[in-house]
Amino acid sequence: SNTLGISAAVAAIILIVAGGLALWFQPWMPDEEPVSIERMAFPLPDKPSIAVLPFDNFSGPDQEHLADGLTEEIITTLSKSPNLFVIARNSTFTYKGKAVEVRQVAEEQGVQYVLEGSVQRSGDRVRINAQLIDALEGHHIWAESYDREFKDIFALQDDITQQIMIELEVELTQGEELRAIHSRVPDPKAFEYFQKSRVHYYRFNKEDNAIARDWARKAAEISPDYPDPWEWMGWHHLQDYRFGWSTDREASFERAVKLAEKAHELDPNSAGTNMLLGSLSLLRGQYHEGISYFRKAVELAPSNANAIAVLAWGLCYSGHPEEAIPLLKQAMRLSPVYPAWHTATLGLAYMMTREYPKAIAAHQQLIDRKSLLQFGYSRLAAIHAVLGNDEKARAYAVELLKIKPDFTISNWSKALIYQDKEDLNWELNALRKAGLPGNPPLDLPDKPSIAVLPFDNLSGDKEQDPIADGLTEDIITSLSRVPDLFVIARNSTFTYKGKAVRVEQVARDLGVRYVLEGSLQRSGDRLRVTAQLIDAIDENHLWADRYDRPAENLFALQDEITRKVLVELQVKLIFGEHAPVSSHGTKNLEAWLLRNQAFAEGSKYTKESTVKARELYQAAVDADPAYSRAWAGMSWTYWTEARWGGWKLSRDEALKKATEFAEHAIEMDPQGPVGYQMMANISLLKNEHDRAVAPCRTGCRTGAQRLSNKCRTWLAIVLGRRGPAIPGGVCPRQTP
To answer: Is 714 a residue whose pLDDT tops 70?
Structure first.
C-alpha cells in the first residue's frame, strides 16, 4: 500500500508538472499571430497561394547572390505548377533586408502561406534553414535545416521545393522537371556566375547590362550545356537593341536571335526562352509566331506573372488590347508589387481601347514611380493632345524633352511595333499634335536660314484663305531670291497650315534659325496684317509690325512687308546697319531684289560673276529707272572691266561707260553717296588722285551716318595716296 501510495503521489506530481508545463508552453496556441482575411489587400485565390521571402544572407555581402539566387530559383520552380498561386519575385523582394512579420506579408500580398529562410556559407559548406508558415492559422507547418557541400546546392534546392509542394498537398507532376533543373547545372561555379549575372541585369542600365553579359558568358564557358546563361545573354543583347546601348543595333539583334535559338535547343520547355523568342519574333514583324511563343511560355509556367504580362504585351501590339487587359490584371494579382512595365502595358491597352481616364491613370503611375518615364510622358502627351487638352499635352512634352532632349517622333516610332499601321499612325499623329519634334534637328546652313509659316486667316471667312496663302507664298518667293538667305520651300512650311505649332518645333524640324509668322484679317475694304520675325534658338522677337491698308493695295502691302523683313534680316545677320541704306532709293521690291542679287554676284569678283551682275543691275534699272544704286552698280561693273582689262571693251571704252552710269546715279539721287563714290573710283583708276578727292568729300556729306563714316575712312585713304600712280586704283571695297 505504501508503494501504491508513493506511486500515486509520483503520478500526481507528474500530472501537475505536466499540466504546469502545458499551461506554460500552450502548444495549442499559434506561434504566429494569425492573419485576418478581411484585412487582406486581395481576396485569396481558389488554390494554395504562397509568397517566398528573400532568404537572409548570413555569410557576408559577397555571398548575397547565393541567397537571392536560391530564392529566385524556388519562386521560378513553384510558379511552373498550375496548382499553385505564387507571388512574383518583384513583389516579395520589396521585403529584402527588412524585419517584417509574416502576418503583414500575407495581408499585403493576399496569400495563405509564407516561406522564409536563410543561407550561410563557410568555405565549401553551406547551411540553409527554411520554414513554411500558414498565415491563416499562425502555425509553422514545416521547417528544416540543410548542411551540404556547396556542390550539392541544386539537390538541396530540389529537396526544399519538393517538401513545400508536399506540405501544400500539390500533386507532384513536376518532380522530374525539378530533377532536370539540377542536372542542367552540373558545376556550382557556373551557377554562382549566373546568379551574379542576374543581379546586374535587374538594375536595367547600360553599364550593368554589359557586366551581366560578362558573368553569363563565364557561366556558359564552364557549363556550355546549361541553357539559362545563353538565354540571358540573348536578353542582354535584346536590351542593347531596344534601348540603343550598342553602336550596331542590328548586330545586337542578330546576336540575341542566335543565343535564343541555342538556349531553345538546349531546353525547349523553358518559359524564359519562349518569352525571348516571342519578343524577337514580334520585333521582326512575325506576330502570329510571337504570340505562339508567348502562349507556350504561359503553358509552361502558368503562375509566372512575367510570362502572362509579356503575352498581354504581344497581344496589344498585335491589335488585341481587349484580350490583354484581363491578362495584365491576372499578372498584377500574381505580383501585387508588379514591375513598371506591367503598368506601361496596361496603359497601352487602355489607350488602344480608348479608355482614356484609365490610360491616363496607368501612365501617371509611371511618373509617380519614376520608371519608364519616356512611355509615361510621351503617351500622356499624346492622350491629352487627342482629348484637346493642349496645355497639358505640351507640358508633358516639355517634361519628356527634359529627360530625353534628343527625343524625336521618328526615332520613337522604331520602338512602336504595331501590326496595324492605323494604330501606329494614331500614336504618331497624337505626338505631333502634342508638339514633339518629328525628326532629329538638321544642321544649320552656313548662312541665315528662315521658314515662313502660312499666315493665319483671322477673318472668320474661308474665302479670305487664298489671300493669306498668297501673301505667304509671295513672301517666300521674294525671300528665296536673296542669295545670302537660306529659305525653306513652300511645300515644307505649308505642312503646318492650320496647326498650333511651336516656333521651336518648326525650327528643329526644318533646320532653320529664324521663323516668320503672321496673320491676316479683313474687315470690309480694309486689311490688317501682322508679322513677326523670331529667332527660334534665342526665342527672341527680332521684329514685329502691324499694317492697316486698303484691300486693293494687297500687292503693295506684300512688297512692303517682304522688304521690311529682308532689311531686318540683313541688319541683324548680313550687312549690319548698312542694310537700311541699301533699301533707300526705290519702293519697287522687284528692283530692290534684283539689285541685291547683283550685289551678291559682283562680290565674287570674277569675270563671269561681274557680267552676271551687270545683267541683274540692268534688270533693276528696267524695273525702276530712278533707282540710283542700280545705276551705280552698272557703273561699277564697267569700272571693274576697265580695271582688269582684256574683256569685250577697251579700257577707255569701259571707263567711259562707267562714267556715264555714275553721272546718271548722281542725277537720280544727288543726296546719295554711291554715284560720287564711283566717280572717285574712276578718277583713281585714271591715276587722277586730286580729282578723286572732290567726289569723296561730297559723298561724305551725303547719305546715312554709317555710310558717311565709311566715306571718311575712304577719303583718308585717297588723300594718303596722292602722288605716285597706283596701278588699278586704291579704293577699298565699295560695291554699290
So the answer is: no
